[in-house]
Amino acid sequence: MKDIAYGISEDIGWRSRMENAHAVVCSEEQNFCLAAVFDGHLDPRAAQAAAEVLPRFVEGSCLDESEKPEGPRRSYGEMINQACLKTDEYIIKKGIRSGTTAGVLVIAGEEFWAANSGDTRVIIESDAGGVVLTQDHRPDLPAERARIESQGGRVIELDVPRVEGDLALSRALGDVYFKPYVTPLPRIVYGLLGRENRFAVVACDGVWVSLSTEEACSIVRNAPTPQKAAELIQQEAFWGGSDDNISVIVLDLEKYIGQLPREKMSILNITDTAAPD
Known about the structure:
- There is one protein chain.
- By secondary structure, the chain is α+β, with helices and mostly antiparallel strands.
- The chain has one domain (5-270): PPM-type phosphatase domain (Phosphatase 2c, domain 1).
- Helices cover 29% and strands 30% of the residues.
- The chain has 7 helices and 15 strands.
- It has helices at 45-66, 76-93, 142-150, 205-208, 213-222, 226-239, 254-257; strands spanning 5-11, 20-27, 32-41, 99-100, 102-108, 111-117, 121-126, 129-132, 155-157, 161-163, 173-174, 187-192, 199-203, 246-252, 266-272.
- The strands form 3 sheets. Strands 2, 3, 4, 5, 6, 11, 12 and 15 form an 8-stranded antiparallel beta sheet that branches. A 5-stranded antiparallel beta sheet has the order 1-14-13-7-8. Strands 9-10 form a two-stranded antiparallel sheet.
- Strand 7 and strand 8 form a beta hairpin.
- The longest helix is centred in the N-terminal third of the chain and has 22 residues, at 45-66.
């Protein structure tokens, strides 16, 4: 995926330690690009473990599928879903008690998959402005509250709604003490890229407490490189009042989209196996 350039910027912010991690894998052999941000809580170990193994699980699944005889093969969406479950299992088996969000964007050919568990966001540029492809998983969302309460859990209103009065997220990888109420299952958006999709941003909530989608996109549009764009988003979020760890990945798709057959992006499907029926 030599036609996709990217930039990464991270900062500890006002916190005492960095609990975030990230991963970018652009595989020429498998012809896909993966960008992911993991926003840890309690300690950095869950985020670090996720950044290490989740891309590896996706790559391994991709290789397995490519070696199958012609016929039905799993989609990247299915592989990402399985990777989140396997990463969650890996974190817990390692004895890690902390947890992490996961925001993942995969591009393969003209297709894309945007997946998240938690509140790390994936944004993609369009002619109409930035499009948020993810959903922040908060315990007070009606579907999330219904799922938690159906499993015997509670959503308690303190400063913000919290699972069992503690965790302010309803989905994350790890967090063994909050199972089964907090699930690792991601919400996955699948679609086709268009020539309007000039860049994408994957960033933790430390960015979005300070910057709107359009503010972040405006920074990218006016930056000379994706690296400079990521740095400027990080700096603007910090000086805009964010007191959290900040992690940003900017993907420059300008060269990549030139080969695409359509002008407009198309969202074809949203899969959420954790949502109540």
